[in-house]
Amino acid sequence: MNSPKNTSTNSVTENGANLMTILAQAQSTDNMAAVIPEIIDELKNVWRCKAITLFALDRDNRQLFSRNRIENLSSEVRVDVSASSLAGYVAGVGKPINLPNAYSEEDLANLHPQLSKGSTLDIPLDINTQAIMILPIPHNKKLIGVMEVINKRRDGEAFSDADFKLAREISPILGKIFAQLEESYGLEPLPVFEDLSPEENLHRISQAIHSAKNIDEILIELKESILMLFEAQAITIYAVDGPKNEIFSKVKSGKETNEIRVPISPVSIAGWVASHEESVNISNVYDEEELQNYHLDLKFDSSWDKKSGSVTKSVLSYPMLHAGKLMGVLQLVNKLNGAKFTAQDEKSAAIISETLSLAFHNHTKYIPSKPTKFSFLIQNGIITEEELTQATAKARKSQMDVETVLMIDFKLQRSDLGKSLENFYALPYFGYSDTVILPAEMMTGLNRNFLTKNYWIPIQKEGEKITLLINDPLNPDRNQNIRQIFPKKEIEYKIGLKIDIIDFLNSTLGEDFSVGTEEVQTEGMSTLLSALKDEQDDTDVVQDEDDGANAISETDSTIVRLVNKVLIDAYDQGVSDIHIEPGIGKESVMVRYRKDGTCTIYEEIPSIYKQALISRIKIMSKLDIAERRMPQDGKIKMKYGKKEIEYRVATCPTVGGNEDAVLRILAASKPIPLENMNFNAHNLELTQASAAKPYGLILVVGPTGSGKTTTLHSILGYINKPERKIWTAEDPVEITQKGLRQVQMLNKIGLDFARAMKSFLRGDPDVIMVGEMRDAETCSIGLEASLTGHLVFSTLHTNSAPETIT
Fold first, then answer.
1. 429 pLDDT higher than 80
2. CATH architecture of 382-509
3. Distances (CA, A) of 142 to 127, 196, 225, 558, 658
4. CA 350 to chain CA mean position, Å
5. Is the CB of residue 406 less than 8 Å from the CB of residue 412?
6. Element at 646 (helix H, strand E)
7. Which member of 166, 396, 621, 732 has the greatest number of CB atoms within 10 A?
8. pLDDT tens by residue, 151-196
9. What whole-number distance in Å separates Cα of residue 135 and Cα of residue 139?
């Protein structure tokens, strides 16, 4: 016995054969309109359904209108091609749907969040649609109509897979019939794609874009097609208005057409894409951290959300570039499934943007060109485009900036260049004048090399507002650095040429202001503690002790300067070790220096800063700031003027959830010559003679801090010659020497002294230096190596040389 499903399938197959015959005959008739009722009746018989509506497409009004007569209705049914109805949705996306219940909120939401319930006949006929099939009717791969099939005759029954398959098979045949009807009634097909591959969809849209009569048709008429390709909720296509430094789009509302204008700047996502000529794919526009991954000043303009009542979430925005010239911006809003736009969407957007940019280029008389920094000069006849091209080419070849080439080779005045920059950036130009003297105190804590490299300088300060002279206010890295240096200040920019900024730096700072590129702050400790107190006063009171300790970030500028001050003061005072010891609870952080073997208190710092202090030290020494349960070792290299200082860092967890940090100041990064180690003449001679032997074992012994490593490297420096291969295993590498092959131990991956020595013996060594012999295996390998033609150096922690033997 056949199952009900099989019976239904057989019935559809048998009736389908008769239907195909009718459709074939219909295509050859001269009176196409007359056969439409017969086709409808046969379709209703095949699917055993209650109603069928065949919609044709009214392109001018972007609507579907019914072509067959509907019982109990004297007028045609019209619906918009949009997501407001199921039929309009299918017309837009070109994909067929088969729903068992047209009132299922879950099924409708999976298709589109704005879909209304029911069919196109529910309201005019006052019926309740349950099962429904809606299919696009294509002809020559263009949408020409839509078929809506409503309700099985048996209530509650859904359309089967066989029903849906047959409907899809006859849709192209109906398309041929509709095409002949359009020839008779003068209807134009809308180039909306059907259920094709992504490549075919893109190709159809590209053809429609290139066949558009003008830019207005692209900006207004073709949006829906692109929108459906990406399954997005909204789309905006912007063109460029160069003189106004804006991008604009056009929106049709009824019979009126309105413009949307956005400045080319980071105040909006589309404006940022236009100004930086880079794409963005944002999953949540209200996530400030995600926006700042692209630019610190990038903002989302939520005014439209507030006006419309809609909520923008995901945005995919692409610049439209042709031959390096900005032609506009393509922006898609809200993926229908609520997710982020996919990688395939990004690829499709890049292709569509390229197509749009070419189409816009072909309509250049409608598009003002994008302004450049030098547009003012060309527009006012100061230079020609050819001269600017020559200057740009020479600047690129000679690695100079274009402004300098224009001033030297083309004799342009600074004022003209400044006016051009002023016009481009919409900021006032502030040129150098020897009558303007900037106060030297404005440079306090700033580094001349840094300012010279980044081309900005403070020129005015009024309360919490600082005015900076800068040559490129759109550079995101410079903006980030400036905001880190002045975290609580209002920043105002003025534009200047690079040469203006250099002249101001020279006149303000003088030749005596010269420090290292990474020069650290050397302000007084009292000033820093006062600043910390001010910040503590600004910090909200917290109930939880840990929250208080974490209230200040390790990247806070005052914390950075405080740590630098502690490290530099220790170096200046000649101490050997720095001890940073957080107290329990709200007890202060004790900072102690060890000098000449004795620890003394250097400073006490409020407890709220203990976590930030330790985290800052971990960051500088490249340790894991999240790991607070295990000891960690690292190293800091710091530039202080022309000196480079090294610190060996060890952190260790202590009671109360704290971590102590101990920093050993390494004397120098280069070895002390053996002759300068203050050996007496006899011992120096013995040491040199022993070090010159081809094999043997030399141990440097003594207590902690006695200079074992320094002595070892002095001896290695004495024998470090091209004819000797020297391997060293150290933990950590405290002193570096050219010619030595030095290896840092990494115990967490299993690289210890014993393993390193085994590797050295396969590395053709003449001399091996092991930082410490801590275990039997390392000692055994060292002794064996010293007896087999190798010179081995190492250290032992003992109080005296005799104790080494005993």
1. yes
2. 2-Layer Sandwich (3.30)
3. 32, 11, 11, 65, 70
4. 18
5. yes
6. strand 643-654
7. 166
8. 998 888 999 998 999 999 889 888 888 887 777 655 543 333 344 5
9. 13
Asked if 376 contacts 495 with a C-beta cutoff of 8 angstroms, the reply is: no
pLDDT in tens, 251-264: 655 445 677 888 88
Domain boundaries, the chain: 4-185, 198-366, 382-509, 548-666, 674-805
**In the chain, how many H helices and how many E strands?**
29, 26
Q: For residue 795, give the nearest of 776, 775, 777, 769 by alpha carbon.
A: 769
Which positions ≥6 away from 340 have C-beta within 8 Å? 281, 282, 283, 314
| Mean of per-residue pLDDT scores for the chain | 80
Residue of 641 and 612 predicted with greater confidence: 612
In CATH, which of 3.40.630.30, 3.40.50.300, 1.10.10.10, 3.90.10.10 is domain 674-805?
Answer: 3.40.50.300
CA distances from 90 to 143, 194, 282 (A): 10, 9, 28
**What CATH fold (topology level) applies to the domain 198-366?**
Beta-Lactamase (3.30.450)
Token reading at 411: 């004799």
Q: Say which CATH class 548-666 falls into.
A: alpha beta
Least confident of 24-33, 572-581, 637-646: 24-33
- Which are the contacts of 263, defined by CB distance < 8 A and separation ≥ 6? 245, 246, 271
d(CA 806, CA 791): 23
Q: What does the DSSP assignment read for 478-490?
A: HHHHHHHHSTTSE
User: What is the number of other CB atoms lying within 10 angstroms of the CB of residue 650?
Assistant: 17
Q: Is the dihedral of CA 613, 619, 624, 626 positive or negative?
A: positive
- Give the range among 21-25, 153-157, 340-344, 675-679 with minimum mean pLDDT: 21-25
Query: Residue 668's pLDDT is what?
Result: 56
Kind and range of the H or E run holding 397? helix 385-398
Residue 544 in tokens: 């939880």
Phi, psi of 624 (to 5 degrees): -85, 110
* Token pair of 103 as six digits: 């009132």
Q: State the pairing for strand pair 49-58/142-152.
A: antiparallel
Burial 774-784 (b: 16+ CB within 10 A, else e): beeebbebbee
Mean pLDDT of 293-319: 83
Is 336 a residue whose pLDDT tops 80?
A: no
pLDDT at 757 over 80: yes
Lowest mean pLDDT among 74-78, 372-376, 593-597, 795-799: 74-78
Beta-bridge partner residues of 238? 329
Residue 802, judged by CB atoms within 10 A of its CB (0-12, 13-18, 19+), counts as exposed
Q: What is the pLDDT of residues 102-126, one digit of tens each?
A: 999 888 888 888 888 889 888 888 8
Q: Do domains 548-666 and 674-805 have the same CATH topology?
A: no
Q: Select, from the ranges 214-228, 546-560, 703-717, the one with the highest average predicted confidence (pLDDT).
A: 703-717
For helices 32-47 and 4-26, the axis angle rounded to 10 degrees is: 170
